Amino acid sequence: MKVALFASGSGSNAENIVRYFENKKTLEFPLIISNKPDAFVHERAKTLGVPSYTFAKESFQSGSEILAFLKEHDIEAIVLAGFLLKVPQALINAYPDKIINIHPALLPKYGGKGMYGSHVHKAVKEAGEKQSGITIHYVNANYDEGNIIFQAKCTIDPTDTPADIAAKVHELEYQHFPKVIEQLWG
Ligand code: GAR
Question: What is d(CA 179, CA 44) in angstroms, rounded to the nearest whole number?
Fold first, then answer.
């Protein structure tokens, strides 16, 4: 089964997923899609030897061009790995239960529009939470509201900065995201 990765930023999760499946025969990750031409994920993609493509923000509004592209490449599922735009309805309709996202907190808290990356960890810190974690969920038309597939938690120490929380959350992401994908579709 061929799976597309969508990533907007650094792409460390995308890289971790590609590497995890590199020597397995189960899932293929033949391409990475981004909405940012200068995102570091393109550098990682080059190193990994995976083609990466940028589509403009407008293409993510209707989604028809991206959908045609994915179909052309026989893509059967999509993994959002640090992808920050809303997924177009055309893609949600074309890939029912075949699009998943990772969120760097324990949904339903700290989700929704504008809640991504460091914003999430700052909000978690400001609220004085003693725990954070990751949520892997199906993607529907609303940000961070699709059915939850998997969660894992980490403790927050009183001295932890938002950057410390981010590091703990990233560790959980690297540990669990590829395995959850494998369990779902591998
Ligand atoms: C990850 O922590 C991911 O959970 C988060 O962005 C980071 C991307 O890191 N996603 C969101 O906030 C989505 N709302 P990466 O580019 O190094 O994989």
Answer: 21
Active site residue 73: no
* Residue 84 domain flag: yes
Domain count of the fold of the chain: 1
- Classify residue 163 as exposed, middle or buried by CB count within 10 Å of its CB (0-12, 13-18, 19+): exposed
Atom 2 in ligand 1: which residue has the minimum CA distance? 104
> Which atom of ligand 1 is found nearest the CA of 13?
18
Tens digits of per-residue pLDDT, 11-27? 999 999 999 999 898 99
Measure 77 CA to ligand 1 centroid, in angstroms.
Answer: 19
Q: From CA 115, how far away is CA 11, in angstroms rounded?
A: 18
Residue 59 sits in which domain range?
2-96
Tell me, yes or no, whether 22 lies in a domain. yes
Is the residue at 101 inside a domain? no
pTM: 0.97
Residue 103 in contact with ligand 1 by CB distance below 6 A? yes
